[in-house]
Specification:
312 residues; mainly beta; eight-stranded antiparallel beta sheet
Length: 312
């Protein structure tokens, strides 16, 4: 646990830095974000996720990774009906006409525990319930454990209210995109989207968008949610002779892949539910990943990021 002086220092710069041998992890309390995950070596540093800009004042969407709680991706028009009551969320990503990625990425997190190579951040949200924008108050947690070889992250949501609430979670990491990098993952069918990136039809992924056989983020043009994620995704950077393997538990059964044109990054997001799961579940779909969290109940998921360099 940090002493009072450490707490003061953390508040001053909003950063928490963990180290384990060659590995370094930087966290920001604004948004509960990872701002850098890198290895240091004799040839210099390797950033395994896209690092945030230097200094302060950058948005969470410019960081290395941010948390998705208490839902991931989009909720149509920021509106949903749950247990007979209609909820209207703030439209939090202008000019988007939908609510996106939950509350945690735009909230202030606190350090609950910290060691040299581990930290637990928490986010308490009662305001949304008080304003009638969410069914119940909740507590979100992220626990980070860094080793010289990998990064473990547990993300969780606990219902602290007196009625049930929808819940979904995941992580939104950004990875460096090089001309030859390749993504491979075991997935099932893919949701096609409309012009607002809302799901319209579940289809077999076309070859150029099928992670089962490998895709090139530099040219694939993907912004889709895949069902049936098998819990393992591999990113290879041949130019670096390096790769990253992402492992996740069965509770994260969907994978969002985002390869925006003209950018130097792409995203591989293990999540527990598909886009707009809360509304589609109310319409009778049973394959959305939708969950209802009872008062006092906790929902958690674990992810492991395991980088590797080829040896000569």
């Amino acid at each position: 646990m940090p002493d009072d002086r450490a707490k003061t220092e953390e508040k001053a710069d909003d950063r928490v830095t963990l180290r384990a041998g060659r590995a370094e992890l930087e966290l920001s309390l604004d948004g509960g974000c990872i701002t850098a995950f890198r290895w240091h070596g004799s040839a210099g540093a390797i950033d395994w996720m896209r690092p945030a800009p230097a200094g302060s004042g950058f948005p969470p969407t410019d960081t290395a990774c941010f948390p998705l709680v208490p839902y991931s991706n989009r909720i149509r028009d920021g509106r949903f009906d749950f247990e007979g009551r209609l909820y209207q969320l703030p439209l939090n990503f202008p000019p988007e006409s939908h609510a996106i990625h939950g509350h945690g990425w735009q909230g202030r997190w606190q350090v609950e525990a910290r060691g040299e190579a581990s930290a637990t951040l928490v986010f308490e949200n009662s305001d949304s319930a008080t304003r009638g924008e969410w069914p119940a108050a909740y507590r979100a947690e992220q626990r980070f454990e860094l080793s010289e070889d990998d990064l473990l992250v547990e993300i969780a949501v606990s219902n602290e209210g007196d009625q049930s609430m929808p819940v979904g979670l995941g992580l939104h990491p950004y990875f460096p995109r090089t001309p030859e990098c390749r993504l491979t993952a075991e997935v099932g069918r893919m949701w096609e989207n409309d012009d607002e990136v809302m799901p319209t039809l579940m289809v077999t992924p076309p070859p150029e968008k099928d992670p089962n056989h490998g895709v090139l983020p530099s040219s694939a043009g993907i912004d889709n949610c895949f069902a049936g994620f098998g819990g393992k995704a591999v990113i290879e950077w041949p130019e670096w002779r390096a790769k990253m393997t992402i492992y996740s538990g069965a509770s994260l059964g969907f994978l969002v892949v985002f390869t925006p044109p003209g950018e130097n990054f792409f995203c591989v997001e293990p999540v527990s539910a598909m886009t707009d799961a809360v509304n589609l579940a109310q319409e009778g779909r049973g394959d959305t990943g939708f969950r209802s969290l009872a008062p006092g109940e906790r929902f958690a998921a674990k992810l492991r990021f395991a980088p590797a360099l080829e040896t000569a």
